[in-house]
Write a structure and sequence with these properties.
The chain is mainly beta. It has no helices and 3 strands. The two termini are 17 Å apart.
Length: 63
């Protein structure tokens, strides 16, 4: 399953043409909701200056 997400902003150093991969280390459901929180990092692959950035993401499942 693929989850849609926003790209890191250009102000982080991520270039418009960079490849970005989301890697989650923890995923937990928020009790009593249809929401999940994940913590991990976004790996930014680009020529000359690849890097990774910590992220927290939220997924709300539709009913």
């Amino acid at each position: 399953m693929k989850i849609g997400r926003h790209r890191l902003p250009l102000s982080t150093g991520a270039r418009k043409e960079s490849n970005q991969s989301l890697w989650l280390e923890e995923v937990h459901r928020i009790p009593g909701t249809d929401e999940w929180l994940g913590a991990g990092l976004v790996q930014v692959n680009q020529s000359g200056d690849p890097f990774s950035a910590p992220v927290v993401v939220r997924l709300q499942r539709g009913t």
